[in-house]
Amino acid sequence: MKRKSKLPAYDSPDFARRFHYTGNDLGARYTPAATAFRVWAPTARSVELLLFQTGHRPEIPRVIPMTPSAKGTWTARVREDLRHQYYRYRIHHPGKAAAVEAMDPYAVTSGANGQRAMILDLRETDPRDWARDAKPAFNEPTDAIIYEVHVRDFTIHSSSGSRFPGTYAGFAKRHTKSPDGLRTGACHLRELGVTHVHLLPVAQYAGVDETRPGRHYNWGYNPMNYNIPHGAYASNPHDGRVRVREFKQMVQALHKAGLRVILDVVYNHTYHGGESHFHRLVPGYYHRMTAKGQFANGSGCGNEIASERYMVRKMILDSLRHWATEYHVDGFRFDLMGLHDLDTMREVRKAMDRMDPSILLYGEGWTAGDTPLPPAHRATKTNVRRLNRIAAFNDTLRDAIKGSVSDHAAGGFIQNAPGFEERLKAGIVAAVRHPQIQYPANDTWHGAWASRPHHCVSYNSCHDNHSLWDKILLTTPGLQTTERLAMNRLAAALVLTSQGIAFLHAGEEMARAKKGHENTYNLPDSVNALNWARKKQFAGLFAYYRGLIALRKAHPAFRLSTAADIRRGIRFLEMPASGMVGYTLRDPSQPDDTRFAVIFNATPEQQTVSLPAAGWRVLADDRHAGVKTLRHLAGDTCTLPPRSALVLAAK
């Protein structure tokens, strides 16, 4: 059957009235008696369902005409048991002689490399006791301590001790050890004390042949199918059931280990532009276009998604609901969140709250290029105060700590580069306004851009750019390893005592190095794999991170939940030299709570600091950190070694 009516402009009220579909039945709905298919393609002249017996082998499909239905959708109902068969759509557009084929945007799994969607009953992929899967307790967003890692990197190195290297199963496996007998994998994370594991993109992406996962490497920011787990991390990429089941088993195992799971989601662009499944289904609708009719490129990847359009926003919301409900996922990190409009992000927060208010949401508060989306509508860090419980990365704090990521030789505070004290203070208070900070005139990007501490993700490094250790190596020619380790410990202390949401890059706690390479998104395992032998080599650094995490978790003063509490609870101190920052800290909501003093000395000299009172316990110094008292200070002064942090608690 064919649809002949002339279509109005995509953004017109007439188009909205005729074609905004609100139903929850897009995709394939399976029962043993019949499978119902519904796809949104309002511009199509006709649509056909193509059925296959396999997920990737060449074969002539069975062709079933689809019927035009409500609001621009097309439907088909096949009254037989289609379980484990595969399908695609063939679309005929007006004025085009050749038909095009596309994947179902609502497909839940696929054969190898994501060209055919699989029909299945998702309940058959549930692990044992999946219905009783329990999320670890979690309250305030600022309680989060996030560990960002790539699935393959985590266990692919021979030192991981994994029987299933580079896979979901390897990630989930407990009680693995390095050749040195030290914990690796999930048990390492439990030992470290983080609360959330942030997985680099696991939705099916291009650039890696799922059947030959060792041949190519990619971080995963090449999105193909938004609702399908990537098959290169599954034990069998050909059977669409396996990737779903093993991903669920991984989440279940991490929950049992006391860890919540965050997915890195890439809804801001598609890997292909004109050849993407979305563009083939509804040309020009899913992507923003320039005035000249070309793909806008705010992503730097050749196109960008038009999140402000109703059916695009619906797709994003439905996809997030799918991951949150079907896979019990606990949070989402939005790649290039600045390309999403504020209204979409507000709807995301509302949708997640209806399911689980504890779901954590944060993203990159910037774009990678110019976009037609007006600046006032972008979910950038300068607009994040207009969002509820959605955070943005504090790149100002990142660069203040270690130096600009765009200038490889430039250092920051930890290298004792001049002029970073005020920006560091602005990061310490989670980018909320504080009366003691000297903000540049008319500044929003570097200063007080957050209205609540949960708007700010505090970090010094992530998968992008150089690892922290490599950045330190690049900026400190001639220094010894002991001095560089002191800088690393100082960087860790800055993040893990700052307000906001704490975020760590995988391997930072054992001086992860990537051989000096910057963006390693397509470099081999020899560069990207976590080498667990470094856990023994840098055992003191690991213990320092572990102690700082325990300190942060033990004392609510390091994770205040309101801007007012930060302004009342933090008082910056006069320092004896540049290259130093210090403050006192308390939790104003708890009048009897412990008062702390936190001091950072980035200079290469020993420094003595006057304290506002006498009598302090040392909880962290230049070498050790934790919840136990290291020693007592009798007077009202303290001495800091070069390149060190000091955390004191009142007696």
Quick overview:
The protein has 16 helices and 27 strands.
Features of the shown structure:
651 residues, alpha/beta, Immunoglobulin-like, 3 domains, eight-stranded parallel β-barrel, 23% helix
CATH fold node name of the largest domain: TIM Barrel
Q: Strand sequence of the main sheet, in spatial order?
A: 10-11-14-15-16-17-18-19
- Strand percentage, roughly? 15-25%
Please give the radius of gyration in angstroms: 26 Å
Text of the CATH class of the largest domain: Alpha Beta
Enumerate how many helices there are, as a single number: 16
Helix percent band: 10-25%
Question: Could you say which structural class the secondary elements and strand pairing correspond to?
Answer: alpha/beta
Give the domain tally: 3
The residue-averaged pLDDT reads 96
**General shape:** globular
Major sheet details: 8 strands, parallel, barrel
Number of strands: 27
Annotated CATH architecture of the largest domain: Alpha-Beta Barrel
Distance between the termini: 80 Å
How are the secondary structure elements laid out?
Layout (H helix, E strand, L loop, with lengths): L12 H7 L7 E4 L4 E6 L5 E7 L9 E4 L1 E2 L4 E6 L7 E7 L7 E3 L14 E2 L26 E5 L1 H5 L12 H5 L12 H8 L3 E4 L3 E3 L17 E7 L10 H17 L3 E6 L11 H5 L28 H17 L4 E4 L7 H14 L4 E4 L27 E3 L1 H8 L18 H8 L27 E3 L9 H8 L5 H17 L3 E5 L19 H4 L4 H5 L1 H16 L8 H7 E3 L7 E6 L10 E6 L5 E4 L5 E5 L10 E3 L3 E4 L3 E7 L1
Parallel strand pairs: 10-11, 10-19, 11-14, 14-15, 15-16, 16-17, 17-18, 18-19
Antiparallel strand pairs: 1-2, 2-6, 3-4, 3-7, 5-6, 7-8, 7-9, 12-13, 20-21, 21-22, 22-27, 23-26, 24-25, 24-27
Helix pairs in contact: 7-8, 9-10, 12-15
